[in-house]
Amino acid sequence: MSGLFATDPSLPYLAMRFRTLLTYLSLLPLSACTKSCNDYDNNEEFARAQLPAYTETGANTLGCVLGAQKWTVLGSQNSPSPLGSGWRPNVLQVYGGSSVPPLLEVRGTMSGVRNSEVFYDREIALTFLLSDTLGGLRLLGEDTVRTRPGHYREYMEALDLIPYVGYHSSARRPVRLLIRKLDRQRRTVSGTFAGMLYGGSLSGHDSLAVTDGRFDVKY
Length: 219
Hints:
The protein has helices spanning about 1-5, 10-35, 45; strands spanning about 60-65, 70, 75-80, 85-90, 95, 105-115, 115-130, 135-140, 155-160, 165-170, 175-185, 190-200, 205-219. The chain is an alpha+beta fold and about 220 residues long. The strands form two sheets. Strands 1, 2, 5, 6, 7, 8, 9, 10, 11, 12 and 13 form an eleven-stranded antiparallel beta sheet that branches. Strands 3-4 form a two-stranded antiparallel ribbon. It is about 15% helix and about 45% strand. The chain has two domains: about 1-35; about 45-219, no CATH class. The protein starts with a helix and ends with a strand.
């Protein structure tokens, strides 16, 4: 039997194929990890970010110029889960609309990540009454002294998550939000906003300009 294998001309070829198979099997877990564990990077997409177009269709969009940065819901967060941590896309979040009075909160995050290192992570939120009275104008201010416990507040905030500092609208110089279309049957609302946000002593900055704000959401 050994003589037969020794004289079989196909033996070197079979041995080479066998070694190739073993090499492939040894690299399979590494290849699988490389394919599924690549570093997340949206640096180029972040640099090209544009504001969403203004619409009145319930497109679930939110955007503005925040300081010098065009801001919209973009990027992903590295979040834990029962199946392990992973990069999950940021999504627009809309809360409320069924309370009395009908108060709505619209919240989203823009993240910039380079080789799995987050270099920009800013969240903004608008909280306002679903009312088109007074021409749809809502004045978003934050004044904890004048606000009664349990009473509604209309305000805007921006949170820098690295480091964790916040900017808030002020009752003295409120952010002006204009509801341009409110459809209670389709449960959609859209409009524009602009103004100034003010930071605390830990923010390192006194104010943050908000311009070209627009939103179009379902609630």
